[in-house]
Amino acid sequence: MKKQRTIFAFVALLLTLVLASACSVPRTLAPTNQGPSPEKLGTIERDITYGTADGVALKMDVYYPRSATSPVPAVLHVHGGGWTTGDKALTAGALFVPELIKRGYLVASINYRLAPQYKFPAQIQDAKCAVRYLRAHAANYGIDPERIGAFGGSAGGHLVALLGVTDKDAGFDNSGGWYDQSSRVQAVADQFGPSDLTKIFEGAKPTLLTQVFGSEDRHSEIVVRASPITHVSPDTPPFLIMHGDKDKLVPLSQSQILYDRLRAAGVTATLVIVRNAGHGFLPTGGIPNPNPAQLAIMLADFFDQHLKTTP
Q1: What percent of the chain has a predicted confidence (pLDDT) above 70?
Q2: Report field, pTM of the whole predicted structure over 0.85
Q3: Could you give all domains of the chain from N- to C-terminal order, each with its CATH number?
Q4: Of 195, 201, 76, 226, whose CA–CA distance to 141 is shortest?
Q5: Taking a C-beta distance cutoff of 8 angstroms, is the pair 60, 88 a contact?
Q6: Which of the following is catalytic: 77, 231, 247, 306?
Q7: Catalytic site includes residue 154
Q8: Is 196 known to be catalytic?
Q9: Are 34 and 70 in contact (CB under 8 A)?
């Protein structure tokens, strides 16, 4: 876990300059009252409170698109960190943000309550609250409330997968506020996230299960409920799944299980296996293929297909 935190911090340090550059290019102003406010295009608005749970103010950073002439699609980013660490601004997921804002997306990167202080389902409750907040304030941000996607890696991949496969019936929409809104998303990009926590693997050791889910019994009700494969149904939105073939923390089999379950239910799903890549797409035994730049394009293409194209 210490090594994972060091990797996240190192990548975040490098990406700070990338994001600053991406958001400082000349802005194309949108017409008044269409899309995001003209003065906000190409900027970052930090530490917005999107809800309150257990007395905790839940925060998000909003990355505005460079240009817009009408309401834009929004993409929620959920950071990783084993459900116990991580931050909305310190994550390898930021590799994908510049490509998204260049293509006209508003990206909202969230913090959520962390274990062990806050046990599951606090984490998915917060992610769902963030989606409801975006819908409730769609006019303020200039977004289309019917076009919201989500992406995240590792624990963040697990949480966005849960966002995609669950609705209010799952019982996770009961914290944070904005209860008159739906937490459903229209497309999900899951990067190396756990999907079946009843299986034994390095990233879901008994000690971590106890820390996060309050039980080391892999077949307990809470662990089964926390596994995205439990909730897959035919009305699940399209999924893009990316995973390194040499990931030892969360094995590729976790994404394969989810992909197979989605396809069996008739859900549109794509599995991209990144060769020579470990957890976080870090090089392992060679040069990752596809490389990070290519993965960013794939992710943006996926959201273009499902959030910009009229069904």
Answers
A1: 87
A2: yes
A3: 2-308 (3.40.50.1820)
A4: 76
A5: yes
A6: 247
A7: yes
A8: no
A9: yes
